[in-house]
Amino acid sequence: MQSLVVGLGRAGAGLHLPVLAKARAREPQLFGGQDVVACDPCRRPPDRPGLVTTASIGSAASGLDPAGTVVHVCTPPAQRHAVITELAELGFRNMIVEKPLASDADDLARIIRVRRKHRLHIEVVEPWLTSTLTWRLIELTRSGLLGAPKSITIVQNKPRFRRSLAAPGHPTAFDVELPHGVALALRLAGAARVTHAAGSDLEVDGQFSPRMGGADVGLRHISGVRTEISSDLTSPVRERRVTVDFAHGSAVGHFAVSDDDDHSQLTVRANGRGKHLVLRDDSLTEWMIQAYRKFRVGGEQTRGFNFAAEVVQLLSVAKNICAEPVVPAARAGTGYAAVAHNAG
């Protein structure tokens, strides 16, 4: 199948293009030998071998067979509905959409309508769900070796000053790292509701970006497990850590913090002893290969789409809790909201 990448920002040029190169090398029968096509009218295209760039989606579509093409939608969340609609009207049906699927519940409803109308097959990028570390944690949870899981803590920190201040493609900090964390929590502990949420603004050297300093979400799962997810986009260090506390032990996992490495780490503690593992974990490449296999099989895939929609709905609830208007006196450092919701 041929690939069309729409949007050449950090996600498109920085992640999808290099991951596609690795996936094509590993599974050439899935991709064939065609060049990857890409378009972004707002950015200068990268100069890469095997890459053909065009000025618009329409010009890219003129040289492609929609039935044999997978489109990677790597535009900012608020633009997803318009881009998906344009692609659908041009005949494209197979789409990989960057997380989050939508910026809010209203956008999600519009995308659901377009998907149903055009019978689209949409896969939402979620590499943590194919991560070796995630599957080790799932095995621990299901095995009962450490007893029942009691709580989950997920920390997703990184410094993100330049991108947030220059051209914030994401409307809030809830849209940057937390989609990964919420999806991981749902996969480990099942369906949940939001109990509380908080967020903060970003201000540095007189520059101000509302709602982009950080975000926190609390979840209570139907299974009884409680999850706390936090993301600090002003942190001096990068960290993607998950801690699962069981009745008789704990597991602490560290996902790779960037595309510079493809290993994760897991430490399991029980009965006063600990075991540390380093795991090969090129999760995004594996996710991409699995997505293309699904496209090759054909037909609509609802399970993954519904899961991604559930993530958006939970994040939308959290953002609504934090929807107080931003005023100068409540700028960075104080947080723009810290409100309890359904906290029972």
CA-CA gap between termini: 49 Å
Largest sheet: 9 strands, mixed
Care to count the β-strands? 15
Q: Reading side by side through the largest sheet, how are the strands ordered?
A: 14-13-12-11-7-10-9-8-15
Rg is 20 Å
Which structural class is indicated by helix and strand composition? alpha/beta
Q: H/E element string?
A: EHHEEHEHEHEHEHHEEEEEEEHHE
Specify the helix fraction band.
25-40%
Number of helices: 10
Average pLDDT value?
Answer: 91
Strand content: 25-35%
Taking pLDDT < 50 over at least 5 consecutive residues as the criterion, the unreliable ranges are 325-334, 337-344
Question: What is the overall shape?
Answer: globular
Reconstruct the topology from this structure:
Blueprint: E1 2-6, H1 10-26, H2 28-31, E2 36-39, E3 51-54, H3 57-61, E4 69-73, H4 80-89, E5 94-97, H5 105-118, E6 121-124, H6 132-143, E7 149-159, H7 161-166, H8 178-189, E8 192-204, E9 207-221, E10 226-232, E11 234-246, E12 249-254, E13 263-270, E14 273-280, H9 283-297, H10 303-321, E15 337-340
Helix pairs in contact: 1-9, 4-5, 8-10
